[in-house]
Records
---
Amino acid sequence: MRKILVLVEHSGGVVDDSAYELAAAARNLGEAGGDVSVGGVVLGNDVTDLAAGLGAWFENVYVFDSPRLQVPDGVAGAELLAGLIEQEQPFATLIPHTNTGMDLAPALAVRAGSPLFADCIALETTPDGLSGVRTRYGGKVHARISATGDGGFMATMRPGSFDTGEAPGSDGALHTMEVPGDLAPQRRFVETVAPEPGAVDISQAEVLVAVGRGIDEEEHLEIIRSLADVMGADIACTRPVVDKGWLSKSYQIGTSGVSVKPKVYIAIGISGSYQHIGGIKGAPYIAAINKDPAAPIFGVADVGIVGDLFDIVPLLEQQIREVKGVG
Amino acid sequence: MDIIVCVKRVPDVAEAEVDIDSSGRGIQLGTLGYVINEWDNFAVEAAVSLVEEHGGKVTAITVGGEDDEDVLRRALAMGADEALCLTDPAFDGSDSFGIANILSKAIADIPYDLVLTGAVSGDVGGGRVGPMLAAMAGIPHVCLATELSVDAGTARVRHEVEGGLERVVELDLPALVTVQTGMNEPRYVSVLGIRKARRKPLTAAGAAEIGIAPDSVGPAGTRVTVEEMFLPPKGEAAEILQGDDEDTVAALVERLRQQGGV
Ligand SMILES: Cc1cc2nc3c(=O)[nH]c(=O)nc-3n(C[C@H](O)[C@H](O)[C@H](O)COP(=O)(O)OP(=O)(O)OC[C@H]3O[C@@H](n4cnc5c(N)ncnc54)[C@H](O)[C@@H]3O)c2cc1C
Ligand SMILES: Cc1cc2nc3c(=O)[nH]c(=O)nc-3n(C[C@H](O)[C@H](O)[C@H](O)COP(=O)(O)OP(=O)(O)OC[C@H]3O[C@@H](n4cnc5c(N)ncnc54)[C@H](O)[C@@H]3O)c2cc1C
């Protein structure tokens, strides 16, 4: 039976959803539909209880529990996983394409000499190896990539791209793994910083008017503010707007920003990268205004206008004023 | 303090129509403009300002063809001291493992304290080259840095980690850091600046010069192959409102009203 290993991400004592998504994806990697044995790998400090709770999802759970693993360190993690891969000889090792996964996987691939499929949105076995799908060019193109061999593959998997399904209800065995005494993480921990609470809290907003790089100049934000005002909405933005210093980080929606769950969300001059969309929860009604008909945002929006935001936004404000009967 | 910064030229597809080329494995690049990878622009700025503060030298490196020298000239114009273009027909078709392998051989001959790369590249964006290069060079790395300072052989890095948090760590140099967007404000590059930078040294080196076996890179050395490219399945795409601006906006207002947005 094929073995697949899954690296379990966790934070603050809570298992990340990606662990269940990858566990489910791993079950599809059997030989011609055959069974697989899925092993979960947990690295951290004081994580044995957390690991023990994963038995319903994995046939085996391998836990490396040590104070030296308190702070995730991709280099140290790669060393431990390389040892486990050597021992278990899995067909593939699946790692979430998260910040910590991106830190560890390439180092592990070099150590273990594995082909690395990065940021997959689909993964399947082929008669002579493995094939995956990833997005390129800002999501405008998909690419099918492949590698051949009997095993030892590695893939980082995009969070949110694989259905979790039901726990298979396995009765996973817990294996306490030794952390070698000479494992010395190369990073010296200074502090962990939570995002500063901003002047605004967009996480609770019901209606959001969000703006992206298409706004082009800081001064142009006025038309967005003005539209939001008349709608009684809050404004939000993508990362490039924050990178330029036009709005503070507390306005940024996305995987490295704030998660929001509005009822209505309007995307203006936003391409629709998965890191941005990843911050939008709860299936709101999404409207998009973009001059590029091929912008990926139209793939997730409910309604769209293909046009220049500098024409559309002022007109939108004006018509809403008329509907609302305000000046 | 000597810094190596790895830069890459990428097609600018933000507003462009993207079509699959006749091989089915790439996109038609003909009409597309090229830019420096967004992340690398922040990495060059970080390198140049660190050297302004501490002294030393910045070497910008790319793996590519003659056309890719653009990004090196741009890095020189921003303040890099030297540039190295790693170019060889044998390098064509390398995957990220191959690119990292080429870079690791090239930097083995250059003294450095710090290597900077972008966190990902905007075109294919796997985010593999930096940490792979660190593993090959046998130096520690940190990914997704949002702040970086150096003091007496130690780098202090703030970087994006799990659960939406950031973490500050210290590393002994030499080390590799991958740079996230927003770390700094990349300085403006004028056409004149690029012209002036032509006086700075830009050298090219191939497989023989850096001592890499040609059959260990390029298609022969790839571990992952691109089988095909295709346009994403349309799925349940948005209803695109039709008509002139007055009409589309009126239709949008109506829908927003129904949804409680107005
Ligand atoms: C680890 C990591 C974490 C990240 N986290 C986040 C995050 O939390 N949030 C986030 O947003 N991004 C994040 N990013 C960045 C993300 O990958 C994208 O680069 C970013 O979301 C793009 O923002 P954008 O849509 O505003 O810009 P672009 O992708 O440049 O899109 C601009 C859009 O505006 C349109 N446009 C231009 N002019 C006009 C006009 N006049 N009228 C109408 N439309 C116009 C263009 O057609 C284009 O579609 C992250 C990246 C990484 C690697
Ligand atoms: C000559 C040539 C041929 C290629 N052929 C193919 C091909 O056939 N199939 C294919 O899929 N891809 C091909 N590529 C693209 C190549 O695979 C990617 O450039 C590389 O693998 C980057 O992968 P990545 O997405 O992991 O980059 P990332 O890891 O996302 O890039 C992160 C950082 O690594 C550094 N970096 C990345 N690439 C380079 C580079 N070329 N030079 C210097 N620094 C760099 C930059 O600092 C960048 O910010 C080719 C590139 C070149 C130059």
---
Amino acid sequence: MTAAKPDNGNKQRTIFICQGTGCISGKSLEITEALKKAVAEHGLPGVKVDFTGCHGFCEQGPVAIVEPEGIFYACVSVADVPEIVESHLRDGKPVERLFYKDPVSDEAIPYHKDIKFYNMQQRIILRNCGRLNPERIEDYIATGGYESLKKCLKEMTPEQVIEEVKRSGLRGRGGAGFPTGMKWEFCRNAPGDQKYMICNADEGDPGAFMDRSTMEGDPHTVLEGMTIAAYAMGSSEGYIYIRAEYPLAVKRVRLALKQSEEKGFLGDNIMGSDFSLHIHVKEGAGAFVCGEETALMASIEGKRGMPRSRPPFPATSGLWGKPSNINNVKSLATVPVIIAKGADWYASTGTEKSKGTCVFALTGKIANSGLIEVPMGIPLRKIIYEIGGGIPGSKKFKAVQTGGPSGGCLPESYLDQPVDYESLAAAGSMMGSGGMVVMDEETCMVDIARYFLSFTQAESCGKCVPCRIGTKQMLDILERICRGEGQPEDIDLLQQLGENIKAGSLCQLGQTAPNPVLTTLRYFRDEYEAHINEKRCPALSCVKLISFYILPDKCQGCGICLRNCPAECIAGDKRMVHVIDQEKCVRCGTCLEVCPERFGAVVKVSAEKVDVPDEPIPVTAEKPAASAT
Amino acid sequence: MIPLAKDNLTKADVQDKLKGIFSHYKGNQEELIPILQETQENFRYLPAAAMREIADFLHMPESTIFGVSTFYAQFKLTPLGKKIIRVCRGTACHVRGAAKVLAEMEKQLGIKAGQTTDDMEYTLETVACIGACALAPTMTIDGETYGKMTTKKVAEVLGDSSKA
Ligand SMILES: Cc1cc2nc3c(=O)[nH]c(=O)nc-3n(C[C@H](O)[C@H](O)[C@H](O)COP(=O)(O)O)c2cc1C
Ligand code: SF4
Ligand code: SF4
Ligand code: SF4
Ligand code: FES
Ligand code: FES
């Protein structure tokens, strides 16, 4: 570690504060201001305060990195600023208590490069996220940015660009995994003067945020990739379709567009060539189905965003009936790297059919929640237990969900499967855009299926009967099962409905909507059966199927639960065993949360009766030792 | 039936603001969604009178304007409260207890998701994901994000926002 010799801040250091959405919610803007002020007050000439986009480790936010040492600070607050400035930036002594702690070994880790969450990743798409100031084009240029565009314009024909991307094996990161180079070629070869290049930044999967972070953290990569794609296809007009829920991404992309135009990397005669491209930003208006290509184009045209049947494919007749190509943010962000380092380099990572890396938003019941980029083919276990640090609270892993509302839930037996398009599809799930939600023993799989169906049902555009009405039927059945009113024949009914909806829907929203139900039926049928046959929720999660009891041999009569119960349904008095009125209890779980851990008197059960008194009785339990917590 | 606001706004009431908005559009159909977005930003909802004017401006039937405004979740046909609270119900948030946060918020405000308090202070909505999933469960008040929510934090966050 750095010696504690004061260097009076003369040493060149930059502290980068994360200003991604996650860290901003943790007040990183205020931290930046406080740092600037403190650095000025201490008159530290060598110290710069700067900011970056999301590092992907938002859970530990606000995060900061001090360069050149590469010291990583987690969970920084405004109150920590004086110590960081005086101890580290002035005296050269890093603040140990702000180091990240490994959730498994509990060891404090000073350097960014030693953190498992990061050092097991391979960052291509996210290479610059958290490493440069996304609001300065100069920072991007300094990393070699826009060199790939230059190379394409000056040294490569559009056909060569397409060939290079085809050879790299890059497949669309928006979900379906269609080879990107082939898509470009279709569009290039389609007859027509006006062609449109569209970036799909709608990121509809609820639980995924890598497109958002990429746009916030490295918007120029996306623009450069998009410009290269437009050059390859011969398109002079481009659109970026961004979710309206992402205001910061919209802001940074607009700023990046302006800077790029000023530098002559966008607009007319880019870099002195005869290639021109104008990019427009369109903000979505809150419709998941608009992530689908034809719906997205309808939405850009100002219409209701409803998918249409194909053919004609967008490559021949897309936006305003012109040849169009849509790519996901991550697909485009990969392109500059492929051009810079070559197709062979890119194709050397990944599996036979799935090349390169994939980005996942690792969330849910996982210790290290955040954005990760890993080589295709990595086993799920490695992602969850090594990078993700496992399940917090020594709970048991139950399932991992990929592919968002179109995907499925995979059980423990799939943990050693490689992650790529083919393996996930074979397991009944899909790669999707990269949401990866980890679930533990407390997550009810029937409830998860119900949750996804409620989402797709609400988002169905209504054009096809199987999707519009079928999902509603499935949802009704699932809700019934969660309430404990399921019938034995419901399982077959769900299966049939699911298969019919898949077969009879026009777009992939309907075609994939049953997946969460079908996979949970396949891998977690016992949970459905417990709900239906025993009126029992094994995860103790479905509110209608659980009850709370106060154990008479543990309760100390402290009254904490009584005071906190929102339904006022706990009876008791000082030194009396408290009793819950089961009729009135709303099963909010507050009593279980607030009952002091050392008493542990409240239990949650399902389809089980616990022997408790009807009325408060005097406490008989011995007081646990005060030292225990 | 889609309930319309009983606002009695007339053409005269909306014209001035709309003029400013229309001034930077050409009047093409593709501009409908951005125009609706800007109109909603100005009025905090889409008054029927404004939609009639938009139909005129874009030379489109009023029914099309209604069709588009009712298709997208973002557009509201009734006035919203001064502050808009959105509780995330995305997958990551769901798994980490978003339902409890929402229930507590509903209780504290005395309204259900999708409603506005009688004093027009708050509108409570749910959102499919705000992209801060690593901090689940999350919510926003007027665009400001709050992460790692608990039922206990709900009152705190509401208190914060009423001071703002
Ligand atoms: C209902 C639905 C929602 C979708 N949402 C998205 C999305 O949010 N982002 C995205 O990139 N692709 C989404 N897609 C996939 C796109 O339609 C399209 O395949 C993709 O943008 C193509 O880009 P790629 O080839 O680079 O993957 C969605 C598809 C469907 C059917
Ligand atoms: S499958 Fe569903 S979302 Fe897709 S077009 Fe049909 S109704 Fe609309
Ligand atoms: S679960 Fe909630 S309502 Fe029921 S007794 Fe406990 S605190 Fe009261
Ligand atoms: S159940 Fe727990 S919180 Fe309630 S009175 Fe007994 S010891 Fe106290
Ligand atoms: S927003 Fe700061 S690490 Fe993601
Ligand atoms: S799921 Fe709630 S922020 Fe993404």
